[in-house]
Amino acid sequence: MKYIVILGDGMADEPQEALGGRTPLEAARTPSMDEMAKTGEIGLVKTIPDGMAPGSDTANLAVLGYNPRLYYTGRSPLEALSIGVPMKESDVAMRCNLVTLTEEEPYEQKRIIDHSSGEISTEDAAVLLAAVQKELENETYQFYVGTSYRHCVIKANGVETAPGMQLTDGVPSSLEKFETHHGGWDSDSHGGVPSSPEKCEAAAASSCAEAVNEIKSSKGQPRKLLSDALESLIPPHDHLTEVIGPYLPRDEVLLAMQKRSYEILKDHPINMERKARGLNPANSCWFWGAGTKPMVDSFENKNGVKGTMISAVDLLKGIAIGAGMNVVIVDGANGGLETNYEGKALAAVDALLSGSSDYVYVHLEAPDEMGHQGSLERKIQSIENLDQRIIRIVKERMDASGEPYRMLVMPDHPTPIRIRTHTSDPIPYLLYDSMKTLRKEASANADGTAPAVPDAPDTDKEGKEGKEGKEGKKSKEGKESKEDKDALGTGRIYCERTAAESGIFRPEGYRLIDVLLEKA
Asked: How far apart, in whole angstroms, are the C-alpha atoms of residue 406 and residue 512?
């Protein structure tokens, strides 16, 4: 059996008046997903634990089977892994966005126009970051080029410790090594800290966080803590169009660096050229997402399958590298709407059928970016591209191979058009098993009759199915009849509404991988 996760980042959304009360996922023309919905399991899953920020970092950790309460140490450290940044236990990594700010006002009164500088190319961004490095880099702050607008800054010795105590390297690299490294901790002698990861996982959130800090604090080392100023750094995409003053760094050095970056970049030739072409200039750095050296267990040891990651985003590649997964770089995959969809699909099939992997995770950033941009039309387009240019190809190739597989399709979190940022709401998932479809067709055809599952209804360009729309057949009262909901293949589709109506809710997203792998 092969296992496939196809994740549309930020794909979930809210009902839109412009779409007649449908969400972008519901309105998009998605025949491949809807075909699988006939026999697949549809439900809701919560990927963001209560009290944690709704980010792609925590959410994708959960989808990959890692409890964010145990494994999350910050977003940027995971991205740093991807681009090969060496981190010490005492280092702090931060995301450095190249953003577009308004230009006329004093810095504190400027507004965020675009958190991605028009999805700037990595080539242009590297030139701009080099100008920033030349003036701002020193022994404490080191800049590293990432992808597009997403880059990294390392602050040396940025971890706060108790007075008179020092951090050294040698912390266990995984929770799996916890017991052997410490020989087990007794809760009485360690202030109530659980004596194993299993007990920690079952403990309350505050206890888990405390235990993880203790686990990282090998042989009496102090817990790793960020200053309040670093912990409070704010993502730019959370405050698009707003005045930036209230959201600027409280750390005086970072604030001065951010202000100075504007002076360095505003009249840079690259930005003058971009403005002449009608593109957003990348005229300021923006620091956020601080965290400490990550600690991720081996994916293969944890799940018993070899995994491959296919993503253009450094965050996902970093998680995979930390987990010991294979990372496939696809030419032309850039994290934007105009990415190499087909290349990702073919890379996934090759990894599965070549024998190099049993599990493939295909991540598409475009729906999230379109949500941040507030573009309803482009978000729908990104979902349709995901369906027809990735899912369709993967499904057709896997079906033709005869290799049985299970495919999980889902977002990581919602990125609603209305607010242009992430929320913690549960998201819809679709779990498809190729063997269940084969068994049903074989049973239906045993007596020579046609399969009981009818063909998927045709859809028009607006995502409607005949006169009844993509919602499927309805009763005279305007609601789906019991027969429609109970029968497989009667127009059931994959979207937020059908997931909510399914009655299936999984409150711990990191356990969904066990369902995919048939361990639960």
From this structure: 13
Backbone angles phi, psi at 283, to 5 degrees: -105, 10
Listed in sequence order, the residues at least 6 apart from 62 whose beta carbon sits closer than 8 Å to its beta carbon are 47, 48, 49, 68, 412, 509, 510, 512
pTM value?
0.74
Identify the CA nearest to 281 among candidates 267, 300, 297, 298: 267
**Are the beta carbons of 444 and 77 closer than 8 angstroms?**
no
- Residues 114-173 pLDDT 10s: 999 999 999 999 999 999 999 999 999 999 999 999 999 999 999 876 444 444 443 334
- Distance, C-alpha 28 to centroid of its chain: 21
What integer is the mean pLDDT of 363-388? 97
Count of helices and strands (H, E) across the chain? 22, 13
**Which residues have CB under 8 Å from 117's CB, separation 6+?**
98, 99, 100, 125, 149, 280, 281, 282, 283
Is residue 208 predicted with pLDDT exceeding 80? no
In contact, 144 and 266? CB cutoff 8 Å: no
**Coil/strand/helix, residue 363:** strand
Positive or negative: CA dihedral 230, 232, 237, 242 = negative
Q: 468: which residues sit within 8 A by CB, 6+ positions away?
A: 474, 491
Which tens digits make up the pLDDT trace of 42-99? 999 999 999 999 999 999 999 999 999 999 988 899 999 989 898 998 999 999 999 9
pLDDT confidence of residue 491: 65
Give the residue among 309, 315, 305, 316 at the shortest CA–CA distance from 330.
Answer: 309
Give the Cα separation of 293 and 77 in Å (integer). Answer: 6
Cα–Cα distance, 435 to 100 (Å, whole number): 49
> Are the C-beta atoms of 83 and 145 separated by less than 8 Å?
yes
Specify the DSSP element, H or E, that contains 230: helix 228-231
Closest CA to 45 of 414, 474, 401: 414
| Helix 376-386 with 366-373: angle, nearest 10 deg | 170
Give the rounded distance of the alpha carbon of 356 from its chain centre. 24
And the tokens for 346? 């073919």
Nearest to 493 by CA among 472, 475, 463, 476: 472
Q: What mean pLDDT value characterizes the chain?
A: 83
**DSSP letter assigned to residue 474:** -
